Each structure stands twice: as structure tokens, then as C-alpha cells.
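Model it.
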Amino acid sequence: MNSKNNDFGIKIKSIRNKKGFSVRQTALQAKMSSSYLSQIENGLVNIPKPTTLLKLANGLRISKTEIFKLAGLDNNYSHELKVYNDEKMINIPVIGEIACGTPIVAQENIEEYLPTIKKSIPNGINFYLKCRGNSMLPTIPNGAYVLIHQQYEVENGSLAAVLLNDNETTLKRIQYQGDEIILIPDNHDPKYHPIILNEDNPGKIIGKVIQMQVYF
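Modeled.
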């Protein structure tokens, strides 16, 4: 467990408890999921980005200066946030686990939001998935946020998000072969194998990859 993430989480939990807020109440005020807030408090995820820190500050009813100080940042990030506003940003949801039988962007599936330039977003339903693993290297690095436009058909060779039969979501390159859909990893390491979708191993395309954000 990363010590910085753990220390930050302990401080956030302490502030929340002192104010008498529940996890659910704080998450609602911060416009993030309860599960994501719990992960922050337990040091299971990285310290959030500045825009998410501002939402967390709102949820805890503390100042921007205080939340940035807790995160080890300074107020120079306020300039970065002003640029976001000037570019007419909109918040796109980051989807965690997709609950069975719910719409993809249902509130219970949303972990956080990422600001994205509005003019770059197509009409319709759009959401981010966080890439976990190295199967799509070098195209998509581990930890990247991949913007998905919801659609159920994509062109041959496109990168797409696919919901598998066990309710797991994967990002792969699509190849059609007869009645089968082959999900191909971009990483040529032999430990990463194609996944074949057919009647015996069903799955469905839920969206096309249209852009990516990487945070270091």
C-alpha cells in the first residue's frame, strides 16, 4: 500500500468523522460514489486529481487550500482549473464495475468524473473506463482513462469496450470472423491471448474508444 495514499486517506476519514458525516452523505455532496470514497479513505487508490479534490473538499465542507495541502499540492493548481473552465469543460463519468441489469451510466456504477473538453465529445452517452493491466500496450498504458462512446457496433479493427458474460468489462481490438467476434490484445506478449465471442462464450460490445487521458 502506498504510504502517501494511506496517509491522505486517514486524514480524509478523520475530517469526515469529526464533522459527523457518513460515507454516503459525503459522497453525495462530493458527487462521487461511496465505494470510491471508501477506497480513498483506505488508501486503495491514488490521491485524486485536482478537479476531484475540489469535489472532495465540497463533500467535506473544507476549503480548496486545505484539501490541496492534505494532498501535498499547492494553489498553483487553481490556474490549471481555471484553464479547464475557460475551455468549456464538461464532466464525464468514470465507470467502475457495471452492475448487472443497470444502465452503464447508472449512479451506482460511477466512481468519479473527469473534466473533458466539450467540443471533443460526440452526442449520445459517453463514459470513461480505467484501463487495468498491460494487455493493450503500447496503445493503452495501465492506469489510463479511456473515453468510450456508447454504441453496440464498431468497425473492424476498432478499439472497443466489451462486456463479457461474467459481467467483466475489457478493452480490446475488434476483429470479425464469420459469426464470431475476436477480441485481440495489442500487446504481443504470448501471455495475452485473444478472446473469442460466440454462442458458447457470449459478450457484447458496449462502446468505441474515442480518446484517452493518462495521469502520472
